[in-house]
Automatic annotation (TrEMBL), chain A:
This is Cytochrome C oxidase subunit I. It comes from Methylomonas denitrificans. Gene3D superfamilies: Cytochrome c oxidase-like, subunit I domain. The lineage of its organism: Bacteria, Pseudomonadati, Pseudomonadota, Gammaproteobacteria, Methylococcales. GO terms for cellular component: membrane. The chain crosses the membrane at residues 12-33, 53-76, 88-108, 128-151, 219-236, 248-269, 281-308, 328-349, 369-388, 408-428, 449-472, 506-528.
UniProtKB/TrEMBL annotation, chain B:
The chain crosses the membrane at residues 12-34. This is Cytochrome C oxidase subunit II. The keyword Transmembrane applies. It is found in: Cell envelope. Its main location: other.
Length: 539, 174
């Protein structure tokens, strides 16, 4: 298969993703040092908040979106054995998204968009920031269309056949993202941009938060699905085994898409503008969406066990030692699952309607999402990168042992950085503070943790540098490599797949109904009651 | 379609775990009345100084005939006003919060007094404070360059002490 263009397309997306990642990692280190207050000459709240805003946008929106797009194009190409549909269209999407990033970066770096990546109005950023963010999302919609078109092309040519699992998951993600991004797109297009440009004078902060909450939960599943795709379809093969169950994997992806959408109000538990009945409804949905993760944990660990036993592992736990720990993708999943256990536990606390009051908006929350997003999700992006880079560049990985050291150091750094944040949260420290100024003895108990997090940040930056350096040197390398992505086979071949596990039509209807129930009245209420908007506030 | 027996069992166990969590949450919400702050009450944040409830002289602690206490506070960059309050322990206290500018959040560490304060809305939290001591009220949502400087103070004293302070007329330093 001649897929040189697909390789270039994927690699170009990946470089934007990891370039943004490298830059954002350095900002992260600056932030833990600045906020500790131990280095007076570094202290500047203007620089700190510009940095936090940029770090969030780069990690949360740029790294993820570009990685997901590049990964999706290459998965579609290699699983379906089809060329990427309309390459001009795909490159246009890339160009639109990249233009958006550059536009948004200008006000961010100039301190004109220090509203953080959640941009809660009535804090107002420069209009170019909102326009840039919109273009990034619009560019990603090009990718969604590409994925759905290729999925339909394949289904038409192979009627009744099960869509390859990796592509099924990728299409699920494209559909998820279209539903997900509708919330923030509505906020930006109908509230933020007209308001920032002066076409309307006031903005309803309650409505804006409700629309943002529409997006804020499923977006983390948009980020997570490539990681889960690798868990199911790449890791078992790399570990030397088979996928335990193809059908349960499909069920898990469908549950993720359907139930991650109508549950965003767990971000609004502490908000005054939504009534508690709606919050409880979303709380129940939040626990339903733990099911696909429980299932994923079981299926991928069962798949690893098969591999470990095929490698000669004996006894109850002997198979763990016989896993190929020196394979980057296998190591990434082991470390990723460890972080998922702790991060998932924290997530259950946050999801618990009333218990959340103890940790809401404290450093605990920053610790939680750094562990589960920066940890579990991103470490698998690294695993995928180490596997894909030789395939995409045609050059052997520059230094496999550096890759292993990088994954370990990322895990260790993340644990050292996020454990203090969890503790600080329980000790009452608010998130998003640039320094500790409070006139209270409580803050003395925070100091040891402020020191510890610096070491975590330092290890993470070194680790990030090792990743980018290794990928860069691989590309420049001289030792050529021939290979293509190999997908794991299930132990039981998939046959007689029911239509509902091979198509999204029914699920889209169900999502539509769920969203109408979960968000219909909560959005409509703002137009039924007398509300009072807010004017424009700088930072 | 092939679904392994182990998988079916595990799916059942997972459903049981999630169901247990949901049951505990619903139980605490509906039988013990433990809810997140959710009163959906609007107010014009630009006209607080003219409002019947949140004009400057109305802020602070109010004792209710049934023995409970209502506290009215305005959040604004960078503080919660009035800045210093003394409150009784073991007493039902209803906090009513409004913002005069942007979104803020407030919590008292080691208590469950926590809410977002969104301009345009009144946030209401009812709780009891069990331990006497000096507590900070901390802003926990980024609200501008001075976010880390946004705090106020609450002193919690025993009910008897608080009653004594009140008869002397000095409990609300607001």
């Amino acid at each position: 298969m001649d897929n040189a263009v697909e390789k270039k397309l994927a690699l170009t997306h990946f470089w934007v993703a990891f370039g943004a990642f490298g830059l954002a990692a350095v900002m992260g280190l600056y932030q833990v040092i600045e906020r500790s207050g131990f280095f007076g000459f570094l202290e500047s709240r203007e620089v700190y908040y510009a940095s936090v805003s940029t770090h969030g946008v780069l990690m949360g929106f740029v790294l993820t979106t570009f990685f997901i797009m590049g990964f999706g194009y290459y998965v579609a190409n290699t699983t379906l054995k089809l060329p990427v549909w309309n390459k001009t269209f795909a490159w246009t999407g890339f160009g639109v998204a990249l233009t958006g990033v550059v536009l948004a970066a200008l006000p961010l770096l100039l301190g004109q968009a220090s509203v953080l990546f959640t941009f809660y109005p009535p804090l107002m950023a420069h209009p170019i920031f909102y326009i840039g963010a919109t273009l990034l999302v619009v560019g990603s919609w090009f990718w969604c269309v590409s994925m759905i078109v290729m999925y339909m092309q394949w289904k038409k040519a192979n009627p009744g056949q099960p869509v390859p699992l990796a592509m099924f998951a990728t299409t699920a993600n494209a559909i998820l993202w279209l539903w997900t991004s509708a919330g923030v797109a509505t906020e930006v297009l109908f509230q933020l941009i007209p308001w920032a440009l002066g076409w309307i004078d006031t903005i309803d902060a309650g409505l804006a938060r409700t629309l943002f909450a529409w997006t804020l939960h499923p977006i983390v599943y948009f980020w997570l699905i490539p990681t889960y795709t690798a868990f199911y379809t790449l890791v078992p093969k790399q570990a030397g085994g088979f996928l335990f169950s193809d059908e349960m994997a499909r069920a898990a992806f469908i549950l993720l898409v359907v139930f991650s959408l109508p549950i965003g109000f767990h971000h609004l538990y502490m908000d005054p503008e939504q009534a508690h009945g709606w919050k409880i409804l979303h709380a129940v949905g939040t626990f339903v969406v733990t099911l696909p993760t429980f299932i994923t944990g079981f299926t991928v660990i069962a798949s690893l066990e098969i591999a470990g036993r095929l490698n000669g592992g004996k006894g109850l736990f002997g198979w763990i030692a016989t896993l190929p720990w020196n394979n980057p993708m296998v190591l990434a999943i082991i470390l990723g699952l460890l972080m998922l256990i702790f991060g998932g536990f924290g997530g259950l606390v946050n999801a618990s309607y009333a218990m959340n009051a103890m940790v809401h908006n404290t450093a605990w929350i920053s610790g939680h999402f750094h562990l589960i997003f920066g940890g579990t999700t991103i470490i698998m992006y690294f695993g995928i990168a180490y596997y894909f880079w030789p395939i995409l560049t045609g050059k052997s990985l520059y230094c496999p042992s550096m890759a292993i050291a990088q994954l370990w150091s990322w895990f260790i750094g993340m644990v050292i950085m996020t454990t203090p944040w969890h503790i600080l949260g329980l000790l009452g420290q608010p998130r998003r503070i640039d320094s500790v100024n409070y006139n209270n003895l409580l803050t003395i108990s925070w100091e040891p943790y402020e020191v510890t997090m610096i070491f975590g940040g330092l290890i993470l930056v070194i680790s990030a540098g090792m990743l980018v350096y290794n990928l860069y040197k691989t590309q420049l390398g001289s030792e050529s490599y021939q290979g293509e992505v190999e997908y794991a086979e299930p132990i039981h071949a998939v046959k007689d797949l029911p239509g509902y596990l091979n198509s999204f039509t029914l699920w889209n209807v169900i999502i539509g109904v769920f969203m109408l129930i979960a968000f219909g009245y909560p959005i409509l209420q703002f137009f039924l009651m007398e509300t009072f908007g807010s004017g424009r506030w700088g930072v | 379609m092939h679904i392994d027996k182990l998988e079916k069992n595990w799916a059942g166990i997972s459903l049981g775990i999630a169901g247990l969590f949901v049951a505990v949450i619903l139980g605490s919400a509906f039988f013990h009345g433990i809810h997140a702050p959710s009163n959906v009450e609007t107010i014009d944040s630009a006209k607080l100084h003219l409002s019947a409830e949140f004009a400057e002289d109305k802020l602070g602690v109010q004792r209710n005939p049934n023995g409970s206490v209502t506290v009215r506070m305005v959040a604004g960059r960078y503080g919660f006003y009035p800045k210093d309050l003394t409150l009784p322990a073991e007493t039902a206290i209803t906090f009513r919060w409004v913002s005069l500018d942007v979104i803020h959040g407030v919590h008292m560490p080691m208590t469950n007094m926590s809410t977002m304060i969104v301009p345009g809305y009144v946030a209401q939290v009812t709780t009891e404070l069990h331990h006497a001591g000096d507590y900070p009220l901390l802003c926990n949502e980024y609200c501008g360059m001075g976010h880390a400087h946004m705090w106020s103070n609450i002193k919690v004293v025993s009910k008897a002490q608080w009653d004594a302070l009140n008869t002397q007329g000095g409990a609300n330093h607001g």
